[in-house]
Structures are given as structure tokens and as C-alpha cells.
Amino acid sequence: MVVNLRKYSGTVVFNTASPIWKPEMDYQPVVKRFESSSGVTVFRLPLLAFPKHVTNCYLVMDEAVTLIDCASGWGDSNESLERCFQQLQDDFGQSVALKDVQRLIITHGHVDHYGGIPYVLEHAKASVGIHALDRSVVSNFAERLIVASKDVEVFLHRTGTSAKKIAELLLLYKWSKERYTSSPIDFEIEEGPLPDSPFVVYHTPGHCPGQICLRLDDLLFTADHVLERITPHQSPESITRNTGLGHYLDALAKIRLLDGIRLGLGGHEAEIPNVYERIDATMGFHRQRLDKTLACCQEPGPLKDIAIGLFGKREGYHILLALLETGAHLEYLYDRGAVVVDNYQDIEDDAHPVLRYRPA
After folding, report:
1. Bridge partners of 359?
2. Is 3 among the domain residues?
3. Domain residues for 62?
4. What's the distance, Cα to Cα, between the start and end of the chain in Å?
5. pLDDT tens digit string along 227-272?
6. Which of 203, 204, 206 is closest to 192 using CA atoms?
7. pTM of the model
8. In angstroms, rounded to a whole number, what is the distance separating the alpha carbons of residues 98 and 86?
9. Rounded-to-10 torsion of CA 136, 215, 237, 14
10. Which pLDDT tens digit goes with each residue over 140-156?
11. In this structure, is residue 271 part of a structural domain?
12. How far is residue 80's CA from residue 74's CA, in Å, rounded to a whole number?
């Protein structure tokens, strides 16, 4: 099998879960100040989106005060946002409050980045923007939840997971998402310079359909596209268009071509001192993961067995994450003819066929 990825030799840290801050990591989630090459001040606001789950939001002190992401709005998230603004006054002498935010940019449609929109709009007259491919996730939340849940259910049936376990996983999938409602979007973000702002937008789908990175001079807000230590979770495009490993790798290569990025500011974990090396490491990790996925297919089997081969036994929500991550890599191999469905002659009349994969 030929996979067109840059060869990388080194250690890559990976977590099948959403990015989670752990106390033993070097990164300590504190407010931190950065400055772009043209002198624009940026503050990292680490918000507790969920227990032990820190989402980095960023306050950009340009002519129009811009907040990039707003965490989940759940639990202590909004309180941690207020604490960060208080810290800006106490520790940095910045007389800025949430009410001063004029523009809220959402980097992608995952709840740990956009769930706090209602709280921000309660306190600030901010215009809210997101990429078109993620707009309906925020503005038409209930419909997207139902459709996405059905697509996940179809995917799970094809993995060979039992009906009982599928029901349990769907409850876990919908649990936190049912705590949110739709929020208005004022403008759509497109590739290129963002009007009336210092930002240049790069559409980087894969982890999320409407994922964007934002460039500010020599700083790059990478959101969840590139992270300092872990790689963002992947799902197959068969569930949601414009996700999938193929889109993700293409988007990594796109950002790899940018010149002059001094520092990456991610949606989780610490800043990224060398974005280019981190991209190489991330692509190298997925090359290794693809090779291991192919090795797990030597004996024809369903996706759930391949997932166990990749990740071992998992519990609770981590079962779903492992299945989705495996599905993304298996889909990449299948689309490129590296694996085939071994039992295709048996599934034509089955309403919920279990697909068994083997090397081509």
C-alpha cells in the first residue's frame, strides 16, 4: 500500500478522546499574553469547558475586540470566562470586560468551542461568525442532532456492534448535546482575508467540516486542526461530509505550505513553538495508524474487531471514539483501494449489514 504522507521518525502523543487537559502534563491552563509581529495583543483564555477539559479561547485586542471561541457554556465554563476577564484587569492591567467584545469568531462546530454563545450574547453586543459548513450546527441545532445521530446509528450497525451496545452508545452520544439550543449566526466566514479585521482565514476541514485556522501576522490560531501534543479526533466522512482523514491530511498539507508562522495557538493545550514540525509529526502518526489498521485487516473482520486491535478494550464513550477513529482510517484505506469488503455478496438484502474488511 502506498500512502502519500511525509515519513516521520519520532514520538507522537495521541488520545482517542477529545483533547483533555491532565494535571501531569506540562501545560498549566493560565491566562497568557502574546503579541503579533505588528504589535497586536492577544490573550489566551483557558476555559473549563467540561471537567478536566480545557478549551483555549483567545481575546484579540484590535480596533474591534474579538473573542475567538467561547467554550461550552456548561458547568463552570461561563464562570471561568468571567474569571479570565477579571485576571486581565488584575494581572495585566487591561480595562476590558466581556461587554466590550464586538466580534465572536467560532473556529468550528463542536460544543466545547461554541456552546457559550448564548452567555456571551447576554453580556455583549457581539456579531457571531462561523464557516458556512458549520453554520447549521449552531443555528439549527435540534435538526442536526437528530440527523447526525441517525447517521451514527447506521455506521455503528455496520461495525458489528450489538444492538444493545449501539443503544447505549447513542445515549452517550446525545447526552451532552441535548443540553444545547440553537444560536443566531450573523456572518459566514470564508477563505481569505476576513473583512474589517486583521485575520486571514484558512478553511481546514477534517476534524470538523467548517474548521478554520486564522492567521494574524506571524501567529496562527490553529483551533483543533493542529495541537501541541495530541492529534484531534477523526470520524469517517460517511457520517458527516467534509470530515474524514483524507480531508484532514489535505488540510494539514495546506497549512504546512504557509510561510512565516512563528507560533501556533491551539484550541487546547499549550502554544505550538514550531507548527511545521508539529504538522509533520501529526501526518507521521496517521501514516503509522494507517499501516496498523491495514495489519489488523489481515484476517477478514468487522470494524469493531479492527478497533480492538488498534485500541484494545475500551469502556463507555471511549468505545464510540475508538470506533469512529478506526472508521476514519479504514474509510481512507477503502477509498484508495487498499482494503475491500470481504462479504459484499452477503449484504445486499440485509437492512443493517455488518461489513467485513480484508486487504485488497
Report:
1. 339
2. no
3. 32-341
4. 9
5. 999 999 999 999 999 999 999 999 999 999 999 999 999 999 999 9
6. 203
7. 0.91
8. 10
9. -120
10. 998 998 999 999 999 99
11. yes
12. 11
